[in-house]
Design brief:
- The chain has 250 residues and is an alpha/beta fold.
- It has two domains: 152 residues, Alpha/beta knot (3-Layer(aba) Sandwich), CATH 3.40.1280.10; 63 residues, Trp Operon Repressor, Chain A (Orthogonal Bundle), CATH 1.10.1270.
- Strands 2-1-6-5-8 form a five-stranded parallel beta sheet, with helices on both faces. A three-stranded mixed beta sheet has the order 3-4-7. A two-stranded antiparallel ribbon has the order 9-10.
């Protein structure tokens, strides 16, 4: 998969993109991430990418000309055939479902905003989608772009060594993931649950599923509305709720 990221700060993104899983995925040719410096597409000697907003007010606004020039030059004939995502707190909320949606494409463009925002003509006539990574405001879209590249890249076949890892992650199945333990079995008097040491894979799988349901119920009960649950799962949740009611009534 190919990612095109349009930013004023390409250098600050390099370290993360070339580390760990993303770095290995690029070396293996599974993904390609190209950073485009928006300043390279300005036409004045000061390489100006922002200006004061019409109508007054604080802050500066990213100019449309260099953004249109950067995206159109980089995407060429692919314009109109792929998502061009503007990263903005006004966009739809990014989640695992959106990551899966974006992973279906072979190429994805991400526009990193800065300053007070971008000229509205970029939003209306250049971007084909708008995405927010949460209900808060960042200095720019670079962190958001890295998050989307990371989340989407993990869904590309071969990027993760464990082919089942994607399915086990929190939110992948609509539930939070179960607890994890590793050596030593005893640390400062805190023991690894006996079931994980039993070698009984059926018991371990059942324990992990119950822990996942319990953790989701306690921390993100809203996720249960859309999670894929079978009858056994619902029975576990009913029992957990019954135990909570009994405990609270004591």
């Amino acid at each position: 998969m190919n990612f095109d990221v349009f930013t004023l700060l390409p250098d600050v993104m390099q370290a993360y993109l070339h580390a760990s899983i993303l770095g290995k995925a690029q070396e293996a040719g599974l993904i390609h991430v190209k950073l485009h410096n928006i300043r390279d597409f300005t036409t004045d000697r000061h390489r100006t990418t922002d200006d004061e907003p019409y109508g007054g007010g604080g802050g500066m606004v990213m100019k449309p000309e260099p953004l249109f020039a950067a995206v159109e030059s980089a995407l060429g004939d692919d314009m109109g055939k792929m998502p061009v995502v503007l990263l903005t707190p006004q966009g739809r909320l990014f989640d695992q479902g959106v990551a899966r949606e974006l992973a279906q494409h072979t190429r994805l463009a991400l526009i990193c905003g800065r300053y007070e925002g971008v000229d509205e003509r970029v939003r209306c006539h250049l971007a084909t989608d708008e995405i927010s990574i949460g209900d808060y405001v960042l200095t720019g879209g670079e962190l958001a772009a890295l998050i989307i590249v990371d989340a989407v890249a993990r869904l590309i076949t071969g990027v993760l060594g464990d082919t089942q890892a994607v399915k086990k992650d929190s939110h992948a199945s609509g539930l939070l993931e179960h607890p994890h333990y590793t050596r030593p079995a005893s640390f400062r008097g805190w023991e690894v649950p006996e079931v994980l040491l039993s070698g009984d894979h059926a018991r371990i799988a059942a324990w992990r599923r119950e822990q996942s349901l319990q953790r989701t119920l306690h921390r993100r009960p809203d996720l249960l509305e859309h999670a894929e649950l079978d009858e056994a799962d619902r029975n576990i949740l009913d029992q957990l709720l019954k135990e909570e009611r009994n405990h609270s009534s004591r």
